[in-house]
Each structure stands twice: as structure tokens, then as C-alpha cells.
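Q: Focus on the chain.
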Amino acid sequence: MSASRGKRAEEIFEAAVKVFYERSYADATVQDVADEVGILKGSLYHYIATKEDLLFWLFEVVHEQVEAIKVAAEAATELHPLQRLQLYVHGQVEYNLSNIQQISIYYHDLGLLGPERAAYVRAEARAHNDFAVRTIKEAQAQGEADASLDPQMLANCMFSTIVWTYRWYREPGSSEGRAARAPTADLCTAFALRGLSARST
């Protein structure tokens, strides 16, 4: 299911995100989402079959958007490995800060997906992990990162910096929000990259 299915589909998607974030996916109902959109519950079933479809829709949208960040970093072959990771980390943190509600639901409610869909989500996450570990190994081979450290451990630390922003970041007033995201993304990126750099040890 894609978010690009027309204006009504976009309204439904945004309503589901708002309702799941405010009430939690477990406590929210399809009726709640329909009420938020301002349509009859039956009309919602033209777009979904179950409430879980709405949750999985969110996961698909997030994956599509963060995959673009990974692809861009992978394609930047003119950059050194740590520079590609810098591009990746900054992009991911900016995305998380700009989509706090979606990301909060993503990490909080993964366990509520059915087994097949949860397996799909984990496979997508592994692709990002594999990219990070592979690029860290390249950095180690080129002397940019400490070769004595386990690449997976370094990747775990890097992803912790990216992921956990949703737990502590609170955007100021709407007029200041965008301005606040940039220095936060810069700080998180510098922190993560310094932990990878051989020069910081």
C-alpha cells in the first residue's frame, strides 16, 4: 500500500498517524481514524481491510523514505567511507526529527505486526545495518576508523544515536521547529562520526 493513492488516501494516512501517536495503536480503533478523517467507517474499508493495514502502511512509507537516504549515501562513491556514513547519519536524523510521530509509532509498535509483516520490516532494517557495517569495514581498511573495534558494535552505537532521538527530541514552537532540527542533526552526526573515527581514540 502506498501513500501516493490520492488526496483521500493521504488524509487517511495522516489521520492514522495522528490517532496512533496520540492514543497508541493498541488502543485506537478504525472508527477513531474514520472520525479523524471525517468519513464513515465503511468508507475507510475501501482503502484497508484491517486496522493492521494502516499500521503496515506507515511502515511501508517510512521504509520507502529512509531507503532513499541509504541509496543516496551508497551512490556517493566519490566520498570516503566516513563521509558516506556522515551523509547517511545526517539524513536519517533529519528524517526522524521531521517525522517524530511516524518514527515513534514505528519503534513502539513493530511487535504488533503479524509475523510475516514483522519479518519484512526486520529484513529492511537488516539492509541498513549491512550497509553500515560494510562501510565501517571500508573505513577501517582505509585507516579512517579504529580497526581494533568490532564493526557491528560501532554500527550499533551509530544507530542508537539515530534511533533514540525520537525519545528525547521535542520540537519548539512551529515557527522555530525547522531551525531547531538542523543543529540537532549536526550535533548527532558529529557525535556518531567521532565515535567511529580513528582520530578520536
Summary: The longest helix spans residues 115-141. The two ends are 46 Å apart (CA to CA).
